[in-house]
Structure to design on (481 residues):
């Protein structure tokens, strides 16, 4: 932590009307390295911060703090700022929640995706009634406009590619009732571990019968029935079985005419404003109601053009929650700037990298400890040189990651932690160790005894006969001519 006075360029950047303008002007002057944080203490009479706001957090790696009230007040504000923008003890506990079963963590801490070398994201519209609704959604443009900036920002965490496919939900028939604006197999522009699959499912139902409400003339899904919605739909997706990485499913469900309009109720019975819900480490589902035709004699199917702005706002908010980027309730004197189209602020990306680095180091420790316990149980195991090299490489990379974290080099620490995870898993799942894992000594005896016992019995009987005859010859007196 370094304290200094502002430079002339910074003073000029702060000489603007609003804090948002100051944040944009200060961004080129700041240290752009991952994990860094610059805090500008402005006078109490400064007009940069709105009335009643004492802390402003920008969308980059800087914040404005209003002075005043003495050093004790300033220390309190800085401490609140550190709790918001830095990786704290609670953040470490949330990152290691799977390894801390006795920890008192809230549900938000356990919904976070665990660190992985890759993720697969699936966007799927579900049309249970294609004879009544012809759903059109411009997913290619939506991916490029809304998803792409977020994935570009997350490219430091993982690599990704974007693909699309069309799937009929019943048999092999292709229903003309749902048009896909973007030919199947289209490769969307993307750069660097996400695979985004865009697929369409016909005749896909939720598997839960909604309740009809006479007062509102609508159908309702209660909160306790939402978990039963996922299993029937997940069986139709089929992407998780073919993927090597965790799969995130974002589904847009257009209710059938017999169950329209369909709304979601929370635990208190109030309607959910987004008409969507998400499941931790799985994904989210949004219900998209279609307006009834003005005339009962309207021709079917009705052409429905999905408002992709409204849909993507919900899906990106759910994506933030799944990655642990939810913003907690803050005091009214702290103002957070919206990250805009990028989906997450620079300091939020730093927190995510911190969490994944710490989790990767813990994963390496667990994997190597499990491997050591396995080797202790198998006494006659032979460790090949390449397996030993992977173990040494994993230990060295984990130690390097911890050393770089201690010195504040976040990006190199994260890269070292990924290399440690890769090496530890290569060592643990090496083919030369797998057959010993599944065939320990007791199972070897159980396999080989039935094979060698039938041959061993006559051999042992013959040996016993030879021994008896030898003993008898020794007992017989020697005849002397």
């Amino acid at each position: 932590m370094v304290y200094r006075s502002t430079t002339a360029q910074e003073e000029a950047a702060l000489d603007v009307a609003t804090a948002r303008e100051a944040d944009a002007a200060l961004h080129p002057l700041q240290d752009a390295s991952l994990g860094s944080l610059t805090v500008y203490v402005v006078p109490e009479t400064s007009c940069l911060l709105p009335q009643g706001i004492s802390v402003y957090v920008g969308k980059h790696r800087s914040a404005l703090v209003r002075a005043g009230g003495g050093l004790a007040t300033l220390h309190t504000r800085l401490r609140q700022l550190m709790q918001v923008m830095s990786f704290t003890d609670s953040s470490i506990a949330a990152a290691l929640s799977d390894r801390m079963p006795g920890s008192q963590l809230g549900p938000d801490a356990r919904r976070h995706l665990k660190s992985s070398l890759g993720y697969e994201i699936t966007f799927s519209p579900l049309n249970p009634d294609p004879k009544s609704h012809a759903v059109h959604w411009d997913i290619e443009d939506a991916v490029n406009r809304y998803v792409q900036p977020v994935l570009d920002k997350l490219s430091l965490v993982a690599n990704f590619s974007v693909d699309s496919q069309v799937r009929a939900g019943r048999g092999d028939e292709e229903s003309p009732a749902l048009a896909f604006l973007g030919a199947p197999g289209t490769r969307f522009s993307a750069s660097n571990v996400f695979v985004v699959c865009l697929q369409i499912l016909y005749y896909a139902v939720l598997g839960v019968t909604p309740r009809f409400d006479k007062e509102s003339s609508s159908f309702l899904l209660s909160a306790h029935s939402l978990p039963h919605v996922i299993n029937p739909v997940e069986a139709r997706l089929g992407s998780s079985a073919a993927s090597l990485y965790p799969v995130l499913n974002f589904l847009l469900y257009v209710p059938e005419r017999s169950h329209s309009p369909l709304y979601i109720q929370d635990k208190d019975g109030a309607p959910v404003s987004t008409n969507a819900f998400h499941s931790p480490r799985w994904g989210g589902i949004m219900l998209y109601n279609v307006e009834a035709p003005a005339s009962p004699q309207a021709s079917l199917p009705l052409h429905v053009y999905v408002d992709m702005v409204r849909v993507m706002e919900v899906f990106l908010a759910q994506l933030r929650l799944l990655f642990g980027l939810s913003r907690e309730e803050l005091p009214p004197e702290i103002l957070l700037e919206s990250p805009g189209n990028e989906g997450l602020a620079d300091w939020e990306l730093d927190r995510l990298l911190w969490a994944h680095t710490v989790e990767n180091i813990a994963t390496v420790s667990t994997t190597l400890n499990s491997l050591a316990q396995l080797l202790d149980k198998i006494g006659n195991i032979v460790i090949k040189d390449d397996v030993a090299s992977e173990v040494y490489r994993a230990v060295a990379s984990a130690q390097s990651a911890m050393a770089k974290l201690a010195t504040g080099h976040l990006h190199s620490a994260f890269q070292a932690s990924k290399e440690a995870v890769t090496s530890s898993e290569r060592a643990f799942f090496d083919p030369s160790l797998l057959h010993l894992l599944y065939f320990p000594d007791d199972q070897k005896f159980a396999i080989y005894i039935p094979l060698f016992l039938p041959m061993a019995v006559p051999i042992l009987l013959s040996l016993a006969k030879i021994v008896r005859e030898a003993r008898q010859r020794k007992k017989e007196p020697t005849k002397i001519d």
About this structure: The longest strand covers residues 119-127.
